[in-house]
Amino acid sequence: EWKEAVARKDRLDAEKLKAEKRAHIGKELADISAERERLAKELDEARASLKDTAAVESELKETDRQREESAAERTKLAGRIGELRGSVTERRASAAKDRKKLDEISKAGRDGVCPTCERALGDAYALLVEKLKETASSAEAEAAAKEKEVAGIEATIAAATRKEEALGKKRASKERELTTLRRLEASVGEKEKNLGRLSEKAMARAQELAAVGETTFSEDEYRRAKAEHERLRTLHDDYVKLKERQEELARLRHDLADAKEHSERVGREEQVVAAMVAELEPKKAQYEVAYKSFDHKTAELNSAKDDRHKASTAKEKAQQAQTQAAK
User: Fold this and answer.
1) If 0-12 CB within 10 Å is exposed, 13-18 middle and 19+ buried, where does residue 143 land?
2) Residues in contact with 147: Cβ distance below 8 Å, sequence separation at least 6, in sequence order
3) What is the pLDDT along the chain (327 residues), one digit of tens a residue?
4) How many CB atoms lie within 10 A of CB 30?
5) Torsions phi, psi of 192, nearest 5?
6) DSSP 3-state assignment of 241?
């Protein structure tokens, strides 16, 4: 029953692990799906806001062309104003000269002298006065016409300047729009890559989920099996402890038998030793006498050895001395 409970719990532990893994992968798949939906929505919005970059670049080039044309025309008109102003100055000077001459001739009268050729005016007076009036008026009219033309050109230049400023603002706006479009294009590309990566990740997780397989795990069944396993484990532990106590009791009985046998053997050995002591006790005095005699003889022998060594040493010294004396 205990083995069956262990096997059942092990099986349910494996099923629980599988169920937890499936739940974890399932949550990952749900998160990936939500992220894909969010990213797809952002991608649709970005694509809807995306315009034709080439069209904006074309508008930018056209704006630059118009600005360049306007600047060139304005430069040309500025040159024309210079020419006209020079002509106005010349015409005004000519008219002033004719007016001065007319004034001089008018003061001189018909009987006067021409201030230029110093001849009498006479009949030429009236013709000369009329001619000077005509040339002066014509020069003044020409100067006025040219001044009017200058004013018109200046108005045209001012309009061209305003147009160029407007084109400059338009160009700046198109530059910002083009920068935004390029960033948007890059963002769309990055979002498309991220969406592709999420799709690959979702496919990999789905394969992992399929590899894990289906499970019939039941939390209630697992709870009951775990409770039964705990109940039987307590009984099993008590049984194991009882078995250990029985084995320990058998070991103690065996040790007790060994101790009894050892005690009996020691008792017998004590009896043998007591008999030996009883037998050897009377011989103790003889042993001590013999031992002392042996010590005395050993001492005499050692003394004789010493004497002999001393004599040998003395003989060697005498021989050495004799040898030295002979030399």
Assistant:
1) buried
2) 84, 88
3) 767 777 877 777 777 787 778 788 888 888 888 888 887 887 777 777 666 778 878 888 999 999 899 999 989 999 999 999 999 999 999 999 888 888 888 877 777 776 666 666 777 788 888 888 899 999 999 999 999 999 999 999 999 999 999 999 988 988 888 888 788 778 878 888 888 888 888 888 888 878 887 777 777 777 877 777 777 677 667 666 777 777 777 787 777 777 677 767 766 766 775 676 576 666 666 666 666 776 777 777 777 777 778 777 877 877 777 777 776
4) 10
5) -65, -40
6) helix
Kindly tell me the sign of the dihedral angle through the C-alpha atoms of 84, 87, 89, 95.
negative
Asked if residue 39 lies in contact with residue 194, where contact means CB atoms within 8 angstroms, the answer is yes
* Cα dihedral 28, 32, 33, 34 in deg (nearest 10): 100
Please report which residue ranges of the chain form alpha helices under DSSP H: 2-49, 53-108, 124-212, 219-280, 284-326
Fill in the amino acid letter for 289. Answer: V
* Distances from the Cα of 131 to the Cα of 74, 105, 190, 205, 281, angstroms: 40, 12, 86, 108, 193
d(CA 113, CA 102): 13
CA–CA dist 270, 261 (Å, integer) = 14
Q: At what angle do helices 219-280 and 2-49 cross, to 10 degrees?
A: 140
Q: What is the largest CA-CA distance in the chain?
A: 209
